[in-house]
Write a structure and sequence with these properties.
By secondary structure, the chain is mainly β. It contains no helices and 11 strands. The relative contact order is 0.33.
């Protein structure tokens, strides 16, 4: 199985920055794509950014130019640098990994970390 542990969330003022981290551990052969998703109260979970093992990235339009996703394959860790934060970025942020466990690829999710952006 795969365990994902997120860290780095918290309370920040509008215009501030936060850096999220997500470390994967467990019994897996490899991890393909990793990504960040978020869910605000009363809303559906939505994609924020993804990155493949080769470094190809994809961003939601709402975060382009403000957020940067990166990963350290040697550490099985993905990061999300969030700059120029806005109140509408307030949500629980979840890490996801598409990992190979015993020859089968599937999605694994972290427990989430709260990000709150105040006015």
């Amino acid at each position: 199985q795969v365990q994902l542990v997120e860290s780095g969330g918290g309370l920040v003022q509008t215009g501030g920055s936060l850096r999220l981290s997500c470390a994967a551990s467990g019994s897996f052969f490899s991890i393909n794509a990793m990504g960040w998703y978020r869910q605000a109260p009363g809303a559906q979970r939505e994609l924020v950014a993804t990155i493949t093992s080769g470094g190809n990235t994809n961003y939601a339009d709402s975060v382009k130019g403000r957020f940067t996703i990166s990963r350290d394959n040697a550490k099985n860790t993905v990061y999300l640098q969030m700059n120029i934060l806005k109140p509408e970025d307030t949500a629980v942020y979840y890490c996801k990994a598409f990992a190979d466990v015993l020859g089968r690829f599937r999605d694994y999710w972290g427990q989430g970390t709260q990000v709150t952006v105040s006015l």
